[in-house]
Amino acid sequence: MADDLLKEQKELLVQMFDEKTYVPMKLKELAVFLDIPKARREELKKVLDILLEEGKIGISKKGKYGRAQDFARVGIFTGHARGFGFVTIEGQEQDVFIPGEKTAGAMNGDKVQVVTEEAGTKGRRPEGTILRILERANKTIIGYYQKNRSYGFVLPDNQKLNQDIFIPQGKDMGAVTGHKVVVKITDFGDERHKPEGIITEIIGHVNDPGTDIVSIIKAYGLPEEFPQEAMREAALMPGNVDSREMEGRLDLRGVPTVTIDGEDAKDLDDAITISREGDGHYTLGVHIADVTHYVREGQPLDQEALKRGTSVYLVDRVIPMLPHRLSNGICSLNAGEDRLALSCIMEIDDRGNVLGHRIAESVIRVDRRMTYTKVNAIVTDQDEEAMEEYREFVPMFNMMKELADILRAKRRQRGSIDFDFPESKIVLDQKGQPVEIKPYERNAATRIIEDFMLMANETIAEDYFWQELPFVYRTHEYPDPEKMKRLGTFINNFGYTIHTQNGEVHPKEIQKLLDRIEGTDEEALISRLTLRSMRQARYNTVCTGHYGLAANYYTHFTSPIRRYPDLQIHRIIKENLKTGLSRKRITHYDRILPEVAKQCSAMERRADEAERETDKLKKCQYMSRHVGEAFEGAISGVTGWGLYVELPNTVEGLIHISELKGDYFIFDEERMELAGEMTKTRYKLGQKVRVVVKACDKLTRTIDFVLA
């Protein structure tokens, strides 16, 4: 009853504020207007506070309440190392810039109430002030401890937390300068006082092996161990598939089957079969580990997998979504073992059209565990030794390449965009020190698997879209028209154009642009800017298509060992195959899937950030042994404070503007270049430069270059 009354009060106030005749009022004026006695004024304040936190109403600097869009809005604060920050407001395209003196002590990730004071203009964000901090995001912080005589302070690892934390005497657990520690914040401070905290854990000394990665794991809240209930459930899992579990399944154990993965992969969740019929049509089978046979809805393993959302691949370790007993054991499609799978078997013609498909619960047995290197040696290099070793499978691999080429050509034809930026491969020694950094090269074999997985994902997504059943899709929205407009203006400087239709750019236009710039000096520059103009892909219960792939239907079906969305849709598919979804189950999935999609998108972002941070850390450690050495590189970023330069091994560093000697350089945002006032020297994206490593800061994970 109390909930109904609160809901009624909230609706009444929102409706009142929305009326054209309403004039913003303070709490006291509202109470008088609504005829609420003084004794019950606190109740009104509570309802208003709830509405403010929900972002449904706003409050002015003078304490007057009104519509959310007229006054303060609620958003998430993102801090910057230099003290200023930005507030992202849901549903608002541009975030709000917050100058350093107007942050009200907000820290990165805090939920805040912000009032916009200056509207955004072309190329400029709106500017605002934070009124209140509604919810603190950083209860604990990881950082570097520095001890003084009677107190200490902690420098946060996260550069977006730009304030150090004061540690009073006796609250340091005996930590000494150089220790990496976990700090519990006891007082968040204000504009005049630093935050204060107590040390709750000493991770290790900054120079101890492994301390660096553990610090990042703790900073991102990555789970280090599985809960006991989940481990108990995992311990009960069988080591082999029982013959009774195979009953009623499509038996594919007699069909030649292979897995193709990296050399060090242990969780093998996809296998391939392929053949060609007399009519020239291909039969492509994509067989995915049947993880949901073992991970049951709502059980401890399932709850923990949803909480994690994804496996996290750090430089020196994997933090798996599922315990190793499953991910490397019964769920991994290991060669020579009977394994349960969920198969998508497609009939594809010689132009790449899927003429028909079948989705089935199956049992498979992988004949060969192949690596990308070996398959590439066969299909690209025709390496005699490799061809002899896998003699009976060579025709199969050649057929795979043939079909993959057809599928890729079809995708290109419709406008699929392929940004081929090299990923980093960082090789560590036994002590965790980086000994080599190089670009991770894609080859014909990696592309074969990529093409086949994309095809299966599209086929499954289209099938379930037309069945109109609850589902989780992988969506990528059209870019922001304003960003595309700016990109169009910029590339005009180089003589390129992109055509828009009703303010939107078709992915084929982006693909054409990337084709035209291939091999030119400005290729890196325009490719990066184009990528930055894109939105982020996410999980969604509504099928809005995938812009980057130029696909109307797309999902993630092929990696249920390491991605929860895949596991979730396997459960829906299997239930639908067996009994069909009842009205009750449809209602159940309609209720839970929006939260699943939101959680998985958030955990994917967290994993990406943690992976990037560990890469930056190891790159910094590697380059610290090369201080004073010269390297060739290309300018990968131009800002008002300097130039970012990327080396061929993927390491990136900054040439600070103060290091550009002999002239005064001005940042031209429209042309994305730094221009010298007197000498007219210009530095722009993609330009080749020779640099010397000046310094490496392992705490901030930054590398400083100077021009050679």
Short characterization:
With 708 residues, this protein is of the alpha+beta class. The chain has 16 helices and 33 strands. β11 and β12 form a beta hairpin.
Which structural class fits the helix and strand makeup?
Answer: alpha+beta
Strand content: 25-35%
User: How far apart are the termini?
Assistant: 74 Å
Biggest sheet features: 5 strands, antiparallel
Q: Helical element count? A: 16
Read across the widest sheet, the strand sequence of neighbours is 5-4-3-6-7
- The beta-strand count equals 33
Mean pLDDT reading: 89
Roughly what percent helix?
25-40%
**Outline:** globular
Number of domains: 5
> Which residue ranges are poorly predicted, with pLDDT under 50 across at least 5 consecutive positions?
none
Provide the gyration radius in Å: 28 Å
Structure description:
With 708 residues, the protein is α+β, with helices and mostly antiparallel strands. The strands form ten sheets. A five-stranded antiparallel β-sheet has the order 5-4-3-6-7, with no helix packed on it. Helix 15 (564-578) packs antiparallel against helix 16. 31% of the residues lie in helices and 27% in strands. It has five domains: 2-67, Arc Repressor Mutant, subunit A; 73-135, OB fold (Dihydrolipoamide Acetyltransferase, E2P) (Beta Barrel), CATH 2.40.50.140; 140-208, OB fold (Dihydrolipoamide Acetyltransferase, E2P); 228-473 and 552-612, no CATH class; 627-707, OB fold (Dihydrolipoamide Acetyltransferase, E2P) (Beta Barrel), CATH 2.40.50.140. Strand 27 (642-646) and strand 28 (652-656) form a beta hairpin. It is globular.
